[in-house]
Design goal:
It contains 17 helices and 32 strands. By secondary structure, the protein is an alpha+beta fold. Among the domains are: 133 residues, Jelly Rolls (Sandwich); 174 residues, Jelly Rolls (Sandwich), CATH 2.60.120. Strands 11, 15, 16, 17, 18, 19, 20, 21 and 22 form a 9-stranded mixed β-sheet that branches.
């Protein structure tokens, strides 16, 4: 396919172009083959039917096949946003559209046949949504877009198309999200607007750090800055009156019950000009009740909803002229709560959202006899689908970024919930195809990708996780093409690390953002960080297994032995070593997380460190008493508590998992319907890695260990703990499990054999 786009100024950013085509006859089996940069939406007669792209590496773009199912469209519109900035959610590449309309295998139109318009109702010079993502959304609507979607004359400037270079186009086998609008009806508060005497001024780094390293529009160049406008408002709840959609200098707060990632929709009608703001977040910020900023903006007990939590600009703004509008955000956002604010007067007859999520996990059914576990499993599944639309992301809100380490855990959930690893394969393939970054060491993979890391920040630990996950991926899929394709990059990466090995064979003064987890263990990083070296040994072992490198295996074992000799104080592994008179000695710093790294990486095991294992088992964990080891910092969710889960599972401590983590995840599920990045909700409340709990609950409740695709084997553990029914997808069908009165009945697809094991097989 040839690529096209209007000629725009090379310094232009945040430009949105609509491509429109009206089929001249009723074609059968009409399909759109499409690829574009940076982001695009496909509309059939005004209905959003696909949002892309399926992201890929620099210089590559996936081609998606979009079907027009039952109704032949009279007008097809493709909206393409060219952001022109760096970030974690999209790569910074020139804009293009490559498209073909195909009917019964015959090309009936290409991108060159579409007419193009600049969508000037989207304000161009606005702040970024976050440090990691592209621009926020602000609109000045003189009329609705109905004429655009119906093929009628429009006021938008007509643009001439020019052929562009585009990217190398590649096929894609990821299931496309099913975009189905759903209403939002539950109003939990309505009220009128006042004046906030002490407004919070949103001045995050995505506002003040604009420059060569972080692209965007400088503050003094902005045409619209909704954060200050919303911050100037006070929200005063009304004591009576039902919500009928009419708002005059007022607001309505909606509760969607659970977190979802979706496009935000409004049907609005205004008789005179009005301004509508939509603010949203995953939680009500109840912790902010004592915060004077919240107290000023939410007087008289109004429910506090923050638009700047996590340093995100959670606002979509519309300036509306008289008329009726069907408004839909261009980008997907993550929220449970949504507040519609009207300055002036407007009737908001409908509020809705269109979820943007992986569709494959819906085939999984988990209905055990434990209601609490069922709720957590659903929360884990809900967390997964929002973080697996095209690559495995850390969160669907602040970043939408394909992070390593997160992906190690999320990939296991993908295997369980979808019966395949298509999204993981795409993420790994992005790393396989990625060119050297001019901002990173040439051997170093980006900490998240596809992305542009112009600030030069990288996490060497996450590069190690790439190797560890690759071994896991090969075990799950048998896909040697991927491992072979990454062989040279892995070899160069290990060579890079070897330059920082000291006389003990340990990594010392490792460059970059050495990250262990979100806790106090990140205070003890220099000069020799022990959890990092434990992970380094595990990565070397993985590389040895992947590529038959005996020297890497020997080096890994030597590192483990050195850690055992130097870092273990007789009771705990200490977090870092320091230099005294040229020798490495223990610094006296001990964290809970370091002990989990020891067991996770195989530096420690139950047989050789029974006392440490017992301490870890009985004195640590999410229910840990503050009176026990008060000087040892606790672990956070990411990733210490998940390394704990992994360790408990390996050693058959199922009772401990159920006792500790059912209430731990239960409070998350109860509050947001999703699982969190941290122990508390100050960060992302929908973080992909946390969906890994689904894998453990499938093991514990039903004894399901997964399947071996190569040998066509369904693997179940001999023991199971609960009754109920479950269904898990596998290639070619489903594994169905029914447990009644202690008896388990299993149904498997043709061509598979059932294998019951006693030992603790990892699987998945």
């Amino acid at each position: 396919m040839k690529a096209y786009f209007p000629k725009i100024d090379e310094n232009d950013k945040n430009v949105t172009v609509a491509f429109r085509y009206a089929p001249d006859k009723n074609h059968e089996n009409l399909e759109l083959r499409i690829s574009a940069s940076n982001a695009f939406g496909v509309f059939s007669d005004g209905k959003l039917i696909f949002r892309g792209p399926i992201r890929s590496a620099h210089g590559y773009s996936h081609v998606s096949n979009v079907e027009f199912r039952s109704v032949m469209p009279t007008c097809i519109v493709i909206e393409v946003a060219y952001y022109g900035i760096n970030g974690f959610a999209y790569v910074d590449e020139p804009p293009f559209l490559a498209a073909e309309l195909v009917a019964n295998g015959e090309i009936v139109a290409t991108a060159a046949d579409f007419e193009a318009f600049r969508l000037t109702d989207r304000v161009q010079k606005v702040p970024r949504y976050s440090f990691q993502r592209a621009f926020s959304e602000s609109y000045v609507m003189q009329n609705s877009r109905e004429a655009l979607y119906r093929g009628l004359p429009v006021r938008y400037p007509r643009l001439s198309l020019a052929e562009t270079e585009g990217n190398t186009l590649t096929p894609c086998d990821i299931s496309l999200p099913i975009l189905s609008p759903e209403p939002i009806n539950a109003v939990i508060e309505r009220g009128h607007l006042g004046v906030n005497p002490t407004p919070h001024l949103f001045r995050d780094r995505c506002i003040v750090n604009i420059g060569e390293k972080l692209k965007g529009y400088h503050f003094d160049a902005l045409e619209s800055f909704p954060p200050d406008e919303v911050a100037a408002l006070a929200f005063i709840p009304d004591k009576c009156g039902d919500y009928d959609g009419r708002l005059t200098d007022g607001y309505a707060l909606f509760d969607c019950c659970v977190n979802r990632t979706a496009f935000i929709g409004l049907i609005a009608e205004v008789e005179k000009s009005a301004t509508v703001y939509v603010i949203f977040d995953e939680i009500l910020w109840n912790e902010g009740a004592s915060d004077p900023e919240f107290a000023a903006s939410h007087p008289q007990g109004a429910l506090p909803l923050s638009f700047y939590r996590m340093e995100c600009c959670n606002i979509v703004k519309y300036d509306l002229s008289p008329g009726k509008y069907d408004l839909l955000s261009f980008e997907p956002y993550t929220f449970r709560y949504l507040k519609v604010i009207v300055k002036g007067s407007a009737t908001i007859s409908r509020v809705y959202r269109t979820p943007y999520e992986n569709p494959d996990a819906e085939r999984t059914v988990f209905n055990s006899s434990d209601a609490a576990i069922n709720e957590i499993f659903e929360a884990g599944k809900r967390t997964f689908v929002q973080n697996a639309a095209d690559v495995l992301t850390d969160c669907p809100s602040r970043e939408r970024a394909g992070w390593l380490c997160d992906s190690y855990f999320t990939a296991r959930a993908e295997r369980l919930l979808t019966g395949k690893n298509a999204v993981e394969r795409n993420l790994l393939d992005c790393y396989r195809l990625a060119p050297e970054s001019p901002f990173l060491p040439p051997e170093m993979p980006a900490m998240c990708y596809p992305a542009d890391h112009n600030d030069g920040v990288f996490i060497p630990n996450w590069a190690m996780f790439l190797i560890v996950e690759l071994k896991d991926y090969l075990r799950r899929t048998g896909d040697e093409t991927m491992t072979d394709g990454l062989r040279d990059k892995i070899a160069r990466l290990l060579d890079y690390f070897s330059r920082y090995e000291n006389e003990y064979g340990l990594l010392e003064n490792l460059p970059g953002w050495v990250f262990v987890e979100w806790s106090d263990c990140s205070k003890f990083l220099t000069p020799v960080n022990i959890p990092t070296n434990m992970l380094y040994a595990l990565a070397l072992e993985a590389a040895a297994d992947l590529y038959g490198d005996d020297s890497a295996k020997a080096k890994a074992e030597a590192i483990k032995n050195t850690i055992r000799a130097l870092a273990f104080d007789g009771e705990f592994f200490e977090d870092n070593l320091v230099r005294e008179n040229g020798k490495l000695v223990r610094a006296g710093n001990v964290t809970e997380t370091c002990q989990y790294y020891a067991f996770f990486t195989g530096v420690a095991n139950k047989a050789d460190y029974p006392a440490l294992f017992e301490t870890m088992l009985t004195s640590f964990g999410p229910l840990r008493s503050t009176d026990v080891y008060p000087n040892i910092p606790r672990s956070n969710a990411f990733i210490g508590n998940f390394l704990r889960l992994e360790t408990l599972d390996r050693y058959g401590e199922e009772e401990t998992i159920l006792r500790e983590f059912t209430p731990y995840f239960g409070r998350m599920s109860e509050r947001t319907g999703t699982l969190w990045e941290n122990n508390d909700p100050h960060a992302s409340c929908c973080h992909g890695f946390a969906s890994y709990i689904c894998v453990l609950y499938a093991k514990i409740a039903f004894g399901y260990l997964g399947f071996d695709e190569t040998y066509k084997t369904i693997i179940l553990r001999e023991n199971f703990r609960l009754s109920g029914s479950a269904r898990f997808p596998v290639p070619g069908g489903f594994v169905s499990i029914e447990i009644t009165n202690g008896t388990r009945a299993v149904s498997i697809p043709d061509g598979y054999e059932l294998k019951i094991v006693k030992k603790r097989t990892q699987a998945l």
